[in-house]
Amino acid sequence: MSELLPDSPSWYNLSSGITHSYFWMLRDAVASAGGEPLAMTPNLMEVAAAAQCAISASGLIIARCAAYNRHDPEAHLQRTRQRRASLDPHMRRLAAAQRVRRSAPF
Asked: Which residues contact 72 (CB under 8 A, 6 or more apart)?
């Protein structure tokens, strides 16, 4: 991944662990104690952005492997696009909520 995504290999590793729901990655992402409201670190927008990066990287790998093996990757790339699209509404909602918080008078 360092060669294919030289600007974001750490984001890929972080988001890949979360995307695949590795217990240790999810456990380390939770910043709140038991009984408190869920708080994640990095924040949810950063996690979503990292997941978008991992999904894009997976699509890149699928496309390259398919081209190398002379296969049509379209069915798999369609799923990649669907995964990215499923995060978009949540990211827009988070961004809107952040704008509201920033513009709220103190």
From this structure: 66
Q: What is the pLDDT of residues 6-55, one digit of tens each?
A: 666 566 666 666 666 666 666 666 777 778 777 766 677 777 888 888 88
Instruction: For residue 30, give the 3-state DSSP assignment.
Output: strand
Contact 77, 59 (CB under 8 A): yes
Full-model pTM: 0.54
- 3 state DSSP class of 40: strand
Residue 37, both tokens: 């409201």
Contacts of 24 (CB under 8 A, 6+ apart): 17
Angle between helices 44-69 and 74-103 (to 10 degrees): 160
Backbone angles phi, psi at 90, to 5 degrees: -70, -40
Say if residues 49 and 18 touch (Cβ distance below 8 Å): no
